[in-house]
Amino acid sequence: MDISVSFSKTRPPPFSPSLCRQLSLRPNTPQLLRFSRNNGTFRRKPPPTISRPNKLAVTAIQISNLSENEDDFVLEDVPHLTDFLPNLPSYPNPLQKSQGYSIVKKTFVSPEDVVAENVVIQKGSPRGVHFRRTGPREKVYFKPEEVRACIVTCGGLCPGINTVIREIVCGLNNMYDVEDILGIEGGYKGFYSKNTMMLTPKVVNHIHKCGGTFLRTSRGGHDTHKIVDNIEDRGINQVYIIGGDGTHKGAALIYEEVKKRGLQVSVAGIPKTIDNDIAVIDKSFGFDTAVEEAQRAINAAHVEVESVENGVGIVKLMGRYSGFIAMYATLASRDVDCCLIPESPFYLEGRGGLFEFIEQRLKENGHLVIVVAEGAGQEYIAAEVHAADKKDASGNKLLLDIGPWLSDKIKVCCTIFPSVVT
Length: 422
Description:
The protein is an alpha/beta fold and about 425 residues long. The chain contains nine helices and 19 strands. It has three domains: about 5-15 and about 285-420, Rossmann fold (3-Layer(aba) Sandwich); about 25-75 and about 90-135, no CATH class; about 140-270, Rossmann fold (3-Layer(aba) Sandwich). The chain has helices at about 80-85, 160-175, 225-235, 245-260, 285-305, 325-335, 355-365, 380-385, 400-415; strands at about 5, 20-25, 30-35, 40-45, 60, 70-75, 90, 115, 130, 140, 150-155, 180-185, 195-200, 240-245, 265-270, 310-315, 340, 365-375, 420.
């Protein structure tokens, strides 16, 4: 069956921040380094003019002539303890002594390894933005017996959270010989509510088989000073924060306060987004499960509309600013006639509009399935209802419901009146 992906044949999609946004634990002015191929070393460079939203943790990169010549490129770096504690001693990575992971000795990542944002560049054009490559280093800045780590989950639920918790605990314990690991219960407020538990490989052995989050979660509750006070009082020196946009804004504030106090505390953010809209990483956890479950809803809609005359099924899927779940589920299902996503604007009326397409498809097939990401078409709804810019406890914008609105519009505006719109 043919698939129409939105309706913008004559309107090219604008730049989409969601396709290239980066999670980082830093304020909105990043650390930019210039790398010279001549001497193979990094050197700091004043940040160029970059158009970016005013966000702490989630930044959209729009690049314009960042490099003066094609032999140089810009490295968008991540903060490191040695940025504000330059005299920290380093130690051999515990992986070098592990019999089970002896092969890792040959695969330590060099500090000068980088990953390019764009795979393809044109000859003579700026080499663009690169990112520090992740992976185990030969040297670390903590002795295993001195590490006191903590893990916290914040915000909404996502498939795979318990697997992430389990792997952090088992990785720290089995690979890095860390034995003191705390679980902070109930989100950020758990730091100052004294809700903690000790985490060991035995404690987390089976949690990956369960849904939800083993540590429980909550929205909001972020008090930077209280959280860092608690981190300092408990002697915690590694903080692992699992969460989304709002959570990482909070993580950035924690990092800034830690830096301000000069504490030897590492803050690591693990992006929790099933939308899979973070560039550079291979895939965000929970995305595959979301696509698989979305196909169940699509199949149910297809069965229902196929059973009636001129049936129209609307399946609203997750995706505030990106349509990866909607698009992947559409491609996997093969029963979808139209997919609407935030990255590609569409119009409703007129030649080539949504309503014309619906009528044409109903004439041809007698039924229709539309998949729409929750963030698509928000400009149309907002123009009609004059909605206030409301946010949830985590600071995320509350979106208007595109599903019922689109259903009502189809019933009113289509000359071929659908017998069923679900």
